[in-house]
Amino acid sequence: MRILIYGAGGVGGYFGGRLAKAGNLVSIIARGKHLEAIKKNGLEVESINGNFKIILSKVTDDLTEVEAPELIILGLKSWQIPEAAKELKSIINPNTMVLPLQNGASNVENLMKVLPKENILGGLCHIVSFVSAPGRIKHVSFEPKITFGELDNSNSVRVQKLEKVFSDAKITNIVSEDIDLEIWKKFLFITTISALGGLTRVSLGEMRESSYLMDLMRKTAGEIKNVANAKGIALNEDHIKVVFEVINKLDPKTTASTQRDIMEGKPSELENFNGYIVKEGNRLNIPTPVNQFIYECLLPMENQARMQAESK
């Protein structure tokens, strides 16, 4: 299959490498020193499941050099989706599948503002991986898994084909019977811990030691559930219970990627996480005071980080 990985970070680099290793024609969009290193030496993946190095079909920062793909995997941050969709519009045809794997609940909505709904699949992934050096991806935790599906949850021919492509690449994958619910289940977890971690600037273990902060997390999760329910997503108390079981089992040194971006003064997914809940809550007349408190406290730092990034 002809595959384009748009964004060669921890997620795109790992899954793109696996797909290329299985014999697919994989092109990657990368930037800067990361691009130069992959062009020169290939893509190196250091994984708890075994290391490998792969030469890709095309490594570039110019979409005009890429042959029209059958599948586009979006491996960038959720706040980068709108701009990416505008760029990708030029190489999409009626048979192209676009699969977002970002955290966040609004990725499909944002893609549909630019691209035809028929091209878009729903998706998410579970993996802890990152760029450890230019041209090198390090996978350190979780059995990598992709969950995906048609937006209407139908078991289409293209979904069956994609399931085989992932399986042949030894990527654990699940075709979801309710992809919106799966996306929101992960969103519930990541939004409950990420921005509050950025606000407190401490690890998950230190937050767990505070009954006050744990209560804030539970209230954050409850508001997310209420907004999801108003949108017709079947999140329930059992899903919240599972989230807190995971929170209580994670390594105490754990920090979320969005939290680290906030602490390092980088643009983050704050707007797509707690900000999205606040805005959808306002639209649907659902109170979200805790999410709004976290969001508003972090927003000045987020705006500053974005201004600094744009000035570079």
From TrEMBL:
Keywords of the record: NADP, Oxidoreductase, Pantothenate biosynthesis
Gene3D superfamilies, A to Z: N-(1-d-carboxylethyl)-l-norvaline Dehydrogenase, domain 2 (1.10.1040.10), NAD(P)-binding Rossmann-like Domain (3.40.50.720)
GO molecular function: 2-dehydropantoate 2-reductase activity
Residue ranges occupied by any Ketopantoate reductase N-terminal domain in the UniProt entry: 3-152
GO BP term (any one): pantothenate biosynthetic process
EC identifiers of the protein: 1.1.1.169
Catalytic function, reaction form: (R)-pantoate + NADP(+) = 2-dehydropantoate + NADPH + H(+)
Keyword Oxidoreductase: yes
Pathway in which the depicted protein is active: Cofactor biosynthesis; (R)-pantothenate biosynthesis; (R)-pantoate from 3-methyl-2-oxobutanoate: step 2/2
Top-level taxon: Bacteria
Pfam families: ApbA (PF02558), ApbA_C (PF08546)
GO cellular component, one term: cytoplasm
InterPro entries: 6-PGluconate_DH-like_C_sf, 6PGD_dom2, ApbA, KPA_reductase, KPR-Related, KPR_N, NAD(P)-bd_dom_sf
Span of domain Ketopantoate reductase C-terminal: 178-299
Task of the protein: Catalyzes the NADPH-dependent reduction of ketopantoate into pantoic acid.
UniProt family annotation: Belongs to the ketopantoate reductase family.
PANTHER family: 2-DEHYDROPANTOATE 2-REDUCTASE, PROBABLE 2-DEHYDROPANTOATE 2-REDUCTASE
Entry-linked NCBIfam families: apbA_panE (TIGR00745)
Protein name, entry field: 2-dehydropantoate 2-reductase
Biological classification of the source: Bacteria, Pseudomonadati, Bacteroidota, Flavobacteriia, Flavobacteriales
